[in-house]
């Protein structure tokens, strides 16, 4: 079994070291795995920190985009690498340290049993914990509203439709469909909609919420685009 853990970064700076430090290497050592860190043309010291990690830890490979591909574009590049090199599963982690890498083990254990198409980490499984973890109140309210609207429209029961923490079962997700998804911050939404259309199962696992000085994609522009897309996809065939 081949596993790719890929970390997408953009102006992540020192946070990328914290992300890598929580990866469960003792668990991954049982498998054939690689850690891919893909930077989307950062202009700060992120590259320096990535090079430092590569020189210190084995099985780490790096990619530095010559120009900014966007959130979704960077994910696609990593997934295309996974397909090209015949990986069975790919786990995506953000380099800003909002999501703990320790959940890689739980995600993989779950997918090996369920064989589902994807696993996503839910910050909203325990809503009190989300607030305790520092989620801004406007993001908290926006997440609840848009997730409930999504569930109503698509007859699903997700608790967090805005997470960026994913495991992909590459045996169940076709490569040619990946490249049709959004190059921006709606990539995760497009992935969710595509899997629902294919009647594939996305399993949620609860994860801790961790907000600090890191940046997040959840802002008003994203919320408006999310709202419009789920309506358009639902009512325009």
Secondary structure layout plus pairing:
Elements: E1 2-9, H1 15-21, H2 25-28, E2 32-39, H3 46-56, E3 60-64, H4 71-84, E4 89-94, H5 103-114, E5 118-122, H6 127-132, H7 137-154, E6 166-169, H8 175-178, H9 187-197, E7 202-206, H10 220-235
Parallel strand pairs: 1-2, 1-4, 2-3, 5-7
Antiparallel strand pairs: 4-6, 5-6
Q: What does this molecule look like?
A:
With 237 residues, this protein is of the alpha/beta class. It has one domain: Spore Coat Polysaccharide Biosynthesis Protein SpsA, Chain A. The chain is built from ten helices and seven strands. The chain has a seven-stranded mixed sheet with strand order 3-2-1-4-6-5-7, sandwiched between helices. Helix 3 (46-56) links the parallel strand 2 and strand 3. It is globular. The relative contact order is 0.17.
Provide the CATH superfamily: Spore Coat Polysaccharide Biosynthesis Protein SpsA, Chain A
CATH topology: Spore Coat Polysaccharide Biosynthesis Protein SpsA, Chain A
| CATH classification class | Alpha Beta
Q: Tally the helices: what do you get?
A: 10
| Net shape | globular
Q: Please give the largest β-sheet.
A: 7 strands, mixed
Please outline what is shown here.
With 237 residues, the protein is an alpha/beta fold. The protein has helices at residues 15-21, 25-28, 46-56, 71-84, 103-114, 127-132, 137-154, 175-178, 187-197, 220-235; strands at residues 2-9, 32-39, 60-64, 89-94, 118-122, 166-169, 202-206.
Keywords, separated by commas or semicolons:
globular; about 240 residues; Spore Coat Polysaccharide Biosynthesis Protein SpsA, Chain A; single chain
């Amino acid at each position: 079994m081949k596993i790719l853990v890929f970390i997408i970064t953009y102006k992540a700076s020192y946070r990328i070291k914290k992300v890598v430090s929580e990866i469960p290497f003792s668990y991954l050592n049982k498998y054939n795995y690689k850690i891919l860190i893909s930077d989307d043309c950062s202009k700060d010291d992120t590259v320096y920190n990535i090079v430092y990690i590569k020189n210190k830890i084995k099985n780490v490979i790096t990619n530095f985009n010559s120009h900014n591909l966007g959130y979704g574009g960077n994910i696609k590049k990593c997934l295309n690498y996974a397909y090209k090199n015949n990986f069975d599963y790919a786990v995506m982690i953000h380099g800003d340290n909002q999501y703990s890498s320790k959940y890689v083990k739980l995600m993989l254990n779950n997918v090996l049993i369920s064989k589902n198409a994807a696993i996503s980490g839910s910050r909203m499984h325990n809503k009190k914990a989300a607030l305790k973890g520092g989620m801004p109140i406007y993001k908290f309210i926006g997440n609840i509203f848009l997730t409930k609207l999504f569930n109503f429209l698509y007859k699903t029961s997700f608790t967090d439709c805005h997470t960026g923490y994913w495991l992909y079962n590459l045996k169940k997700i076709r490569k040619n469909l990946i490249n049709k998804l959004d190059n921006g911050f709606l990539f995760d939404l497009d992935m969710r909609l595509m899997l629902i259309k294919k009647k594939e199962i996305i399993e949620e696992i609860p994860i801790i919420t961790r907000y600090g000085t890191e940046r997040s994609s959840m802002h008003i522009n994203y919320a408006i685009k999310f709202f419009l897309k789920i309506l358009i996809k639902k009512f325009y065939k």
